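Worked example 2:
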Amino acid sequence: MFRVCAMIDWLMQLLGSWSPTWWGVAGGLLVFLVTFIGSLVVVSVVMIKLPPTYFQSSHARDFLPDRHRAVRWAGLFVKNTIGLLLVALGVAMSLPGVPGQGLLTILLGIMLLDFPGKRRLEQRLLSQPRVLQTINRLRRKFDKPPLLLD
């Protein structure tokens, strides 16, 4: 409990001593633009590259099936770590005032994670008309077929 109080005191002192300057505001704006454009590009490229049957139950989900067990486990660890990071970033981007595509980034992170009930959660996210329409509109712009659901 003491560490939490000390951390809150430190944060309050830091924020209390902060005075905005033009360089600070410009730097914040630059970070805002870079993260917004970066998240749009990454999420868009992945959603365009997906096969249209990716979210159907008949689509194979094996990760590195022809590799040695150690390579497969290391790959799964890295893939799940990146997935967790993307879900956390997506949740942060869903907050008001934070740039980026929150729900699509969460969906991308969930696609990378391996856990029971994953397909159901993906289906629930994609069953929201706005999410599926946004992805399919993007795919249409790049002459890709729409995503197919079960």
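The mean pLDDT is 83. The first helix runs from residue 2 to 17.
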